[in-house]
Structure formats: structure tokens, C-alpha cells
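Review form for a predicted model. The reviewer records the input and the model, then writes brief findings.
Reviewer: anonymous (R2)
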Amino acid sequence: SAYVELHKLQGGHSDTINCVAFSPNGAYLASGGDDYALVIWNVSQGRQLYRTLFRSSVDYIIWHPTLPDTVIIGCSNGTLQQFHEFSLNNSEQHDINLGARSTIHYLDYDANSGRLAVSMGEEVHVTREKRPNYYVGDVVLPSPPAPEGMEDEDPRLRAIALRFHDDGAALVVSYLAHGISCWDTETQQSRWHIPMPDVRPNMQVIRALCGISPDAYLLSGGAAISPHHRYITVYNVKDGLDLYALGPQKKAKAKRSYKFDKPPRSKHLLQVKYVHRGHGIISGSTSGQVSIWETTTGEVCQKLEHGGERRTCIRPILFSHKLSYVATGTAACGQNTYIKIWRARI
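Model under review:
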């Protein structure tokens, strides 16, 4: 059924919202932004529970799948922390120290193996939580094959989506300009690779998305892997989303496309997410509108109007069999910075 607006959360952020994530039980929402703030919200009541500041923008947040009331936070200055409990008396911050320090783009955690994958700068790191809040080891995955025809241009490496596979034994990495690779986390060998399709964005777009252009702006995300690990859907930085089959391919060919009604107003990466157990795909836009498509047909199920803001970043989560929540955050400043929570009964 259609999503309806449940809450409009204001007052927690004063600058662009980079990431939002629901807790495993759906009771809480964590958000991070360019105002250096991490905010924890009560979803059912639509109110702020806790707010703390870091020394740089909070770019990515995930909830720990096994430790209650715990989030893992990545910041633009390379800060990587596990934040536990949310009160003035009991909050704890535990640093996750890797062999490098750079901007955090994406995080994924595998509950079966206790492994944490981190897209950091131009590298992808994998570490393991030996006991609560204590990580050991640091493995850096090799660089993917260089895109054909781009060797001389040397586009910057950037992993825009990570997803553990095979109980943590493999990691699927989607790169901005280097295609999609599946890496064995034990041997660091490539299991398979999907090259960048011919419709890839041009070098001017890639350089802008990499942050070389002074007016470039990056939203975490840009690709999503289906719950059954059969497909990956990628924002093509042109006119919508493209769906590809996961696995070894000599030449990438989109099996289905999901088109925007309006062309992008600016060349920025948008977040993509599977919902409804993989039956739906949702994406933000640069025009203040959020679209939900049916995965198999490509038809638009619903559009969530966000008030006409210039940009919208989104990270929706399906958390139960009966209720579905979607959270959408604006890329704006001041009073135009807010989060909307949408609810639907399934």
C-alpha cells in the first residue's frame, strides 16, 4: 500500500543530511550530516532522543546487527567509531583503528563472521570484531581492473557500495568508474568482475563526483544489491537506475531500467535501496522527489514529494513483516534541513 507521511523531524540538523539508518527493531533512527552531528530519533514518537558532535561531517552510519543500541560511524576526516548507548551518563565511543585514515564512504557489517567492510578513500578495508567493541586485523583489497579506454585519464578509485556475501566469505564492491567486483575476503582474490558498461558517465562527470570539481557534492551510496544477491541496481548519473545480474560477465548489459520523470538537475550520486524484500526499489533525486519502482516491471509504484527541495538523500529500511518505514533527508541548510518518516502497512 502507499506510503504516508508519519513525522517531519526538525531541529536535529542545520546542514545537509548525509545518511539515515533505522535500528534493527525499527524503534530508532540515526542520522548524520555536514553539521558534524549524529542524532538519534524515536521513530514512533517522532522526537529527538540524543545529539552529539564530531570534528567533521558524519558521512555514513550503520547499526550494529548484534550489539543493542550501537551504531558504527564514519566521518569525512577518517574517524571510524563504534558508538554505544545514548545518554549523558552512559554513552561510550570506541575507535576502530585501521592501517590508514581517510574519508569514509560506505560501511557494511556481516553478523555471521563479525567482519566490517570500510570504503575509505580509494581503498576497501576489511577487519573483524573479535569481541564487543574490539577489532583485530586489517586487510586491504586489491584495486579492480582499470576501465577500458580510461587508462590515461586515471579516474579516482571510489567504492560507492559494499555488501557481504556467502556468510562474510565474499564482499561485493561497486565502484564509481571501475565496475563491480566480488572479492574473497580470505584470499583477497577476485571471484568475478563486471566491467563498467558502455553507457558510463564521461570523465567530466566522474571527476566532479570524485570531488575534484569545487562545486561537487557527494551523497553516500549510488548502488544497491538485492536481498538474494542476484542483482545490483546502480544510479547511472544520467536518467535513472539500471539493474544488472551479479556474476562474471564479459560485457555488462542492463536487464532493466528505472527512469526518472525529470533529468537530474546536477551530477551527484544518489542513494538506492531495495525494499519490500526485494520487490521494490527506491531512490532519491536532485529535484526533491523520491520514487519507488516495482522491481520486475519497472513501473513506478509511488512518488514521495519532499516539498520541492533541490536535492534529496535517502536511505530507506524495511524492518518488519507488517510495517514498512522509509526515511528521507534533505540536502539543505537551516530550517530547510529535515527528515521525513513515511509509513505503509503491508
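Findings: The chain is about 0% helix and 45% strand.
Further findings: Helices lie at 203-209.
Recommendation: see findings above.
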